[in-house]
């Protein structure tokens, strides 16, 4: 995994947050209502990384609070945790207009914030939700359907577990939901192994 130690670019997690909240590094800054930095326990063993804020997140400033967020919350609760036990962030921290896919320049501009969040939090299990987070953090072109539900080595002994994005689960229904539940069982097992 390249680009280690971005947390050294920021004196503290609070400073990182403050800089991200005022960011104008990419064109998404011009169309956002607000930056969705991330939420949860800054010392969590388990961190989730989604794609980018949607309309509900852009309005509230919180990640995963819309329909996909409700599904994510229930999958987290199904493995005996709450949202406040984990940390939730996104690849891009500002909403792409009309929920389009984030562009490479937007992902590259925002990457130092995500890398620094990971550097400060030092999660033991990093769950990538969908293709964008998976491809970025595993530095791969392999798609989520091949990688999901398995532990992939990350830096400092941590693992990445890719899972289906909750929006894809909502779109695809029953079989996808069963796969997502199986992926969360893998998350619970990986957590039990590290703590
Ligand atoms: N989808 C994402 O990828 N992130 C959010 O925060 C909300 C929906």
List the helices and strands and how they pair.
Blueprint: H1 13-21, E1 39-40, E2 46-50, H2 55-60, H3 67-78, E3 87-90, H4 104-121, E4 125-129, H5 131-138, H6 144-147, E5 152-153, E6 159-163, H7 166-172, H8 174-194
Parallel strand pairs: 2-3, 2-4, 4-6
Antiparallel strand pairs: 1-3, 5-6
Helix pairs in contact: 1-4, 3-7, 7-8
Uracil binds at residues 50-54, 57, 63-64, 68-69, 90, 167.
What labels describe this entry?
alpha/beta; Uracil-DNA Glycosylase, subunit E; 8 helices; 6 strands; 44% helix; binds uracil
Structure described in brief:
The chain is α/β, with parallel strands linked by helices.
Describe this structure in words.
The protein is about 45% helix and about 10% strand. It is built from 8 helices and 6 strands; from the N terminus they run H-E-E-H-H-E-H-E-H-H-E-E-H-H. The chain is an alpha/beta fold and about 200 residues long. The protein has a 6-stranded mixed beta sheet, with helices on both faces. The protein has a single domain (about 5-195), classed as Uracil-DNA Glycosylase, subunit E. The protein has helices at about 15-20, 55-60, 65-80, 105-120, 130-140, 145, 165-170, 175-195, and strands spanning about 40, 45-50, 85-90, 125-130, 150-155, 160-165. A hairpin with a 5-residue loop joins strand 5 and strand 6 (about 160-165). It is globular and about 40 Å long. Helix 1 (about 15-20) packs antiparallel against helix 4, helix 3 (about 65-80) crosses helix 7 (about 165-170) and helix 7 packs antiparallel against helix 8. The protein binds uracil. Uracil (URA) binds near residues 53, 54, 63, 64 and 68. Uracil binds near residues 54, 68, 69, 90 and 167.
